[in-house]
Amino acid sequence: MSRKKGDIAENKACVYLFENGYEIVDRNIYSRFGEIDIIASKDEVLHFVEVKSGESYELAIQNITPSKLSKLIKTANIYMKKNGYNGDYSFDAVAVLPQTIEVIENITI
Question: What is the DSSP pairing of strand 35-42 with strand 45-53?
Answer without folding.
Answer: antiparallel
